[in-house]
Amino acid sequence: MSENDPPNLISLKSLFTEGFFGSVVLGMDSTQVRLLLGEATAEYQYGSECLVWLYGDIEFSFRGQILSEISWQPNLVSYDPSLPSAGVIALDPWIICNGLTLLEAESELRCNSIEFRRVTVPPRLSFEGDSVVELITTSNARLIFRGYLNWFLEKFSLSKSIWNRYTFGSFS
User: Fold this and answer.
1) With b meaning 16 or more CB within 10 Å and e meaning fewer, what string describes 20-34?
2) Could you give the CA distance from residue 48 to residue 39 in angstroms, rounded to a whole number?
3) Is 4 exposed, middle or buried (0-12, 13-18, 19+ CB in 10 A)?
4) H or E element: which one contains 140?
5) If 0-12 CB within 10 Å is exposed, 13-18 middle and 19+ buried, where does residue 41 land?
6) What pLDDT, in 10s, does the model give residues 20-50?
7) Domain ranges of the chain
8) Running DSSP on this structure, what letter comes out for residue 45?
9) How would residue 167 be classed by pLDDT, with cut points 50, 70 and 90?
């Protein structure tokens, strides 16, 4: 970020290094998130426990009114180069864009001294039956890449999940 950036610019780099989306952190309730980010672009309710708010194309998922995941998925139909958008919220996408490759992401994380571990999910264990590689930072932010996409970024996600309970190699 530079001195010319808007004062409330949210950097996705801080999501991967510290686990923050501006002042928003996992575990906040929906009232706290709305106070910090304002009205969502769109809201979806799935059953009685799952609520999803979209700010632009950044997704905030709540379980029982508690923020459990922040994620973005590029347009996999068009493969057009695109950047994440948070609607009216000023966003610095850092390296995140449609077309980011696994090798570029690993290189950029290392260049920025961001510790991560690389987890390879074998095809027999993935839902789609395809190889998956996740780069998981110490803040539990994930960059997810798939073989069928020629190792381009499929999604990024920040969540507290079962993966935290297991060690899949060391951080690099």
Assistant:
1) bbbebbbebebeebe
2) 21
3) exposed
4) none
5) middle
6) 999 999 999 999 999 999 999 999 998 888 9
7) 10-165
8) E
9) very low
